[in-house]
Amino acid sequence: MNLNFIRHSVIMLQTVPAGIALSVGAASLVIVYLEKYLPLGSINPFIQQLSSDTARTVLSLIAAGAMSALTLTYSIVLVVFALAAGNLAPRMLKRFTTDFVNQLTAGIFGGTFLYALLTVSFVDTYFVPNIAILGAELLAALCVMQLIYFVRNVSESVSIDDEIAAITRKLKSALSNRTEKQGKRTEGEEADTGKLGEFIFDITAGTPGYLGYLDEDELTDIATEKDVTLQLQKARGAYTLGEEVLIKATGTLEEETVKSIQNQISIRPSRSEDSPVEFSINLLLEIALRALSPGINDTFTAIATVDSLSDALSQAATQEDTSSSIRKDEDGKIRLVVPVPSLENLINQAFHPLRQASGANVMMAFCLARAYARLWATCGKGAQALLKEHGLMLIRELEMRKHLDEDIASVVEILPPAIRKANRERLSDHKK
Questions:
Q1: Which residue from 23, 194, 32 is spatially nearest to 121, judged by alpha carbons?
Q2: What radius of gyration do the chain's Cα atoms show?
Q3: Are 125 and 52 in contact (CB under 8 A)?
Q4: What is the four-CA torsion angle of 180, 325, 353, 80, rounded to 10 degrees?
């Protein structure tokens, strides 16, 4: 059963705090029951003894304070996040809604409210749950400490440098996970992909949207049971129409099997973190492009983004690159082929828009040249040929914008020797 919908940001924003709040609230029932029906006289001297009226007042204040703090805090935070998203990137709001500190804070405040509300319902003239009231006071103290930590976390969330670093860590983790999965392939699998047979059966997406999570284990089991090989036609994060062919199979499949296969693939109406590599790169790219726009004009934010991208992609460049992920059955027969973005595709996805937006900005040209040099030192020959094209296009972009020859020469000097040599050959051919 595909339970990946639980990872959706809206679902997480509702279920995680609700689970914490209900758990804390339920603790009131347990503590009151133990205090009411079990002999606890030995610890009573160490517990404050309150009258019923005082107990109701204390619990009412705690409940009202917890709910007021929750309402006020989230009202202010939503305003701050909206302003930050307007200046940085609207899609960053998804990161804020799935932040665990935000969810934990909502759960603690909501749980304290429920705990105090349930506890006060047991207070009467003949029974005052003093231990439970002590628990409510401890929760109130926890709320104060959590509120302080929450404000600190919010301030970091709207700090662009901290956000870029957090997105980069997630991108590097996603690239490492992809490399780890590719590392499990045995030698010769790449050659086997050419011997899969003819794909004669088409399976459409059924729903338009962005390709998100797919249950590779379940798809492999279905392919094994039906003795076919399935080949996904699009990488995760790509957009597909409902009528487009999403999967090809080497054998004819029944309608029930087709529906079962479609159910193992999550298609989102909007981009999501189900494809963390592509989503993170697009998020960093969006931050950089907005920073370079005339309305914001924040070159140093764009430079930080380019540096982070080169760091993450250089990590991927040190690993073996491939264009597909392969899953086999127990007998070693390939059952599932899933395309993954190659390093060259990721470089194009990230650096073409950055170069096009940086033509009039010499500082960004220096930054891009340094990024190309870093990647050149870590990647293979295939990516180096691509980087040579990027470097030459950067030089031509600067020439087209009519920058000073000295500035262009300074940018060229940063590029790897092979790119400088190719540029000299280009200029020599141009003179002829």
A1: 32
A2: 29
A3: yes
A4: -60
Q: Which residue, chain included where needed, has tokens 């679902």? A: 11
Please write the tens of the pLDDT for every residue from 128-157: 888 889 999 999 999 999 999 988 887 776
Q: Given 3.90.1170.30, 3.40.190.10, 3.30.930.10, 3.90.226.10, which CATH number is that of 189-268?
A: 3.90.1170.30
**pTM as predicted:** 0.68
403-406 contacts: CB < 8 A, separation 24 or more?
403/362, 403/365
CA–CA distance, 205 with 4 (Å, rounded to integer): 18
Q: What interhelical angle do 160-183 and 276-292 show, nearest 10? A: 150
Confirm if 297 and 303 have CB atoms less than 8 A apart.
no
Q: Where are the domains of the chain?
A: 4-158, 168-181+276-320+341-431, 189-268
Distance CA(59)–CA(140), nearest Å, equals: 10
| pLDDT band, residue 189 (cuts 50/70/90) | very low
Residue in this structure with the two tokens 């080169």, named with its chain if needed: 310
d(CA 309, CA 314): 8
- Could you tell me the pLDDT band of residue 194, with boundaries at 50, 70 and 90? low
Phi, psi (degrees; rounded to nearest 5) at 198:
-85, 135
Count of C-beta atoms within a 10 Å radius of residue 10: 11
Measure the CA dihedral 217/170/357/375, to 10°: -90
| Other beta carbons within 10 Å of 377 | 12
Q: How many CB atoms lie within 10 A of CB 72?
A: 11
Both structure tokens of 170: 């997630």
Q: What is the pLDDT of residue 95?
A: 61
The tens digit of pLDDT for each residue in 80-99 reads 777 666 666 666 666 666 67
Which candidate, 197, 296, 286, places its Cα nearest to that of 249?
Answer: 197
- H/E stretch holding 422 reads helix 417-431
**Angle, nearest 10°, between helix axes 362-378 and 343-357?**
170
